[in-house]
Amino acid sequence: MIVILQQAVSPDDVRPNAVSRKRPDYPTEWEGPDYGWDTFVHVKWDELEPLVEEVRRNGGNIAVEPFSGTHGNLEFKNAYIKDPDGYTLVLGAMRESLR
């Protein structure tokens, strides 16, 4: 995977997304994300943590370390990366729950 980022011309151009509103009407117990994000990249379950380590090795800013949760009969694992302009990219994986 290659992610191409472009630097903003001015700090006034930077408008990262805020945390979204929680919604009690999802069809599962999940009510929405706890952190705001701008781009979500789905990756394979076993690739998420090696990708996070690669980002870290290359000087990337891991804003939220990998964490897991459930969404109905699915489990997810996400990590949040902050780019130089303050935007948040999520690396996320999902699979059927093993529980």
UniProtKB/TrEMBL annotation:
One Pfam family cited in the UniProt record for this chain: Glyoxalase
Coiled-coil ranges (or none): none
Domain Glyoxalase/fosfomycin resistance/dioxygenase: 40-90
Matches recorded under Gene3D superfamilies: 2,3-Dihydroxybiphenyl 1,2-Dioxygenase, domain 1
UniProt protein name: Glyoxalase/fosfomycin resistance/dioxygenase domain-containing protein
